[in-house]
TrEMBL record:
InterPro entries: PTrfase/Anion_transptr, PTS_EIIA_type-2_dom, PTS_SugarTrans_NitroReg. This is PTS EIIA type-2 domain-containing protein. Pfam families: PTS_EIIA_2 (PF00359). PROSITE patterns: PTS_EIIA_TYPE_2 (PS51094). Residues 4-150 form the PTS EIIA type-2 domain. It comes from Gilliamella apicola.
């Protein structure tokens, strides 16, 4: 995925939700409005997250990378959502509750690109300063610039 595919319309900064499901409803609405996903997205992302959690505990911040099968994606992209308060997801490794500060939502039409993209994105997780800048930012262009080197 190229930087050009980071769409300002699906970058959401400093959000708060009562639950992960509430966040997914909000995201699903925005993704449908911008023609990124099919109508089944909401059901499928919640189902997949319940069966295969995507929360990752890192040193200072926690991230999640929810995604659905490619058949529910209309066009490639990635939504980014930040929350200083945190949104409860399940830890991918332990299945325990985990307060997530950054959600990188993968929207990939080809299943074989998921792994490559995940590896590029995950390479940034060891750098706390990058993640802290993303959470603290109030500027979508700044977020895109931070991610530019990671996603190339």
């Amino acid at each position: 995925m190229e930087l050009e595919q980071l769409d300002n319309n699906i970058i959401f900064l400093n959000q708060e939700f009562a639950s992960r499901e509430e966040m997914f409803k909000f995201i699903s609405h925005e993704l449908l409005k911008n023609n990124y996903v099919t109508e089944q997205y909401l059901e499928k992302v919640i189902q997949r997250e319940n069966n295969h959690p995507t929360g990752f505990k890192l040193k200072t911040l926690n991230v999640a990378m929810p995604h659905v099968d490619c058949e529910f994606v209309r066009k490639n992209g990635m939504f980014i959502l930040t929350s200083k308060k945190g949104i409860i997801f399940k830890n991918a490794e332990t299945d325990e509750d985990l307060s997530i500060n950054i959600v990188f939502g993968l929207l990939l039409k080809e299943s074989d690109t998921h792994l490559t993209f995940l590896m590029k994105l995950a390479s940034s997780f060891g750098n706390d300063s990058i993640l802290q800048k993303i959470v603290e930012s109030n500027n979508k262009i700044e977020i895109k610039n931070i991610l530019k080197d990671i996603l190339k």
